[in-house]
Amino acid sequence: MLVGKQLFLRGGYLDNSLTFNERGVLIGHSSQGSYTLCEIQIDKVHLSKHKVELDGERFGLHFLGALPYEDPTKAVDRVNITPKKKEVRITIDREIVVKPKEKKEKTKAAAPSPKPGPQTTAPSTAQPATASAAPPPPPAATPAVSQPAEASDAAEAQAEIAKTPPDERPADAASVTTTTSPAHAAKVLTDALEKIFAQGFDSRMMAAMPSFWKLYYEAAANKTDYRPKDSSVLRENMVDQKARLLSTNQPESNQFAQDHGVAGMALYHVVVGADGKPAEIAVARPIGFGLDENAVESIRKDTFEPAMKNGKPVPVMLDLVVEFRIYSKRTDVASKPPQQPLAPSLPGPYSVSH
Questions:
Q1: Is 298 inside a domain boundary?
Q2: Which sign does the torsion angle of CA 203, 207, 209, 213 carry?
Q3: Any idea what the Cα angle at residue 13 is, between residues 10 and 15, rounded to 5°?
């Protein structure tokens, strides 16, 4: 199911050490980010009685400029962003399988039955008394038997966990449940894996994406360009006065992009309302590596002068280009002009600054 597959972390978790309980719920906390930073390739699987350990690598998606009507999956570069000499480790607790104890209880209940045999026949003449006393015991006896059985299973599981080496124990031993069915334990583990990972862009993953990514992949699926859902939104060539950007906010890069040299320009479709505020935003030509999220957040803070038609402000769709740069010590030095020497190093015109 897992080894060698390219999976996505549904929660967008960015930490490289993650632990989940048996239901696929994250234990502890982790920073979250774009799905373009959350592709995981599983290399090794270690399956023990109490947990599953998955070792692998994390990849970032760098889009190479495909338009929406082109296949975006063929214009993406997968970049290994796992820190050097480290790996991604994901641990998932397992439901514990215990042996059923019904047989033991039946044998214990059957053993003393011959002894009270003669005593039960003696009071048989007092049938009214036995009839009146018979109804109360069953309801009281049923929970009295089941509750200790469940408690003993849990106690046995906890005792077994305590005997195992610390590195093989579940992360959240107190919440681990028990079952007598190996098939049920296997299903619980399968459901947890499905909750943690997505094998490609399934419906659940698409539903969890921000709207600007949904619009991008909807256009890609239809092999067309983005169209605003509101039919009253005009194009720039249909208005008398185009919308104008009044103030802009430079989107931030991130450490992943800086460390792996991801920079360039990305294109976004923006619907500017009659009030001059950005409404619907769709990715047109993404860059990936979590930078598109920063770009959209920056665009939402921009202010515009609305487009005009027949003397009235109208909603219009326009395209915005956002550029990301690399900021490092090397580029900082390269961007600074070289300092002039205090004394001329060569005679004559060679020492003159042109």
A1: yes
A2: positive
A3: 150
Please, what is the angle between helix 211-222 and helix 291-301, to 10°? 110
- For residues 195 and 236, membership in a common domain is answered with no
Domain shared by 67 and 190, yes or no: yes
Distance CA 136, CA 157 (A): 33
Q: Do residues 194 and 300 both lie within one domain? A: no
Taking Cα atoms as reference points, which of 227, 203, 204, 205 lies closest to residue 215? 227
- Do 46 and 34 contact (CB within 8 A), yes or no? no
Q: Tell me the residue length of the chain.
A: 354
Together in a domain, 185 and 229: no
Does residue 307 share a domain with residue 185?
no
The verdict on 193 and 61 lying in the same domain is yes
Count how many domains the chain has: 2
- CA 161 to chain CA centroid, Å, is 29
Does residue 188 share a domain with residue 231?
no
Would you say residue 151 lies in a domain?
no
Q: Which residue range forms the structural domain that includes residue 57?
A: 6-97+175-200
Do 186 and 320 sit in the same domain of this protein? no
Please, what is the Cα angle at 4 between 170 and 52, to 5 degrees?
10
Question: How does pLDDT run along the chain (354 residues), one tens digit per residue?
Answer: 899 888 999 999 999 999 999 999 999 999 999 999 999 999 999 998 889 999 999 999 999 877 656 676 678 999 999 999 899 999 999 998 888 765 545 555 555 555 554 444 444 444 444 444 444 554 444 444 444 555 566 676 677 777 777 677 787 777 788 888 999 999 999 999 999 999 988 899 999 999 999 999 998 888 888 999 888 999 999 999 999 999 888 899 999 999 999 999 999 999 999 999 999 999 999 999 999 999 999 999 999 999 999 999 999 999 999 999 998 654 443 334 445 544 444 343 333 343
Instruction: Report CA Rg, the chain.
Output: 33
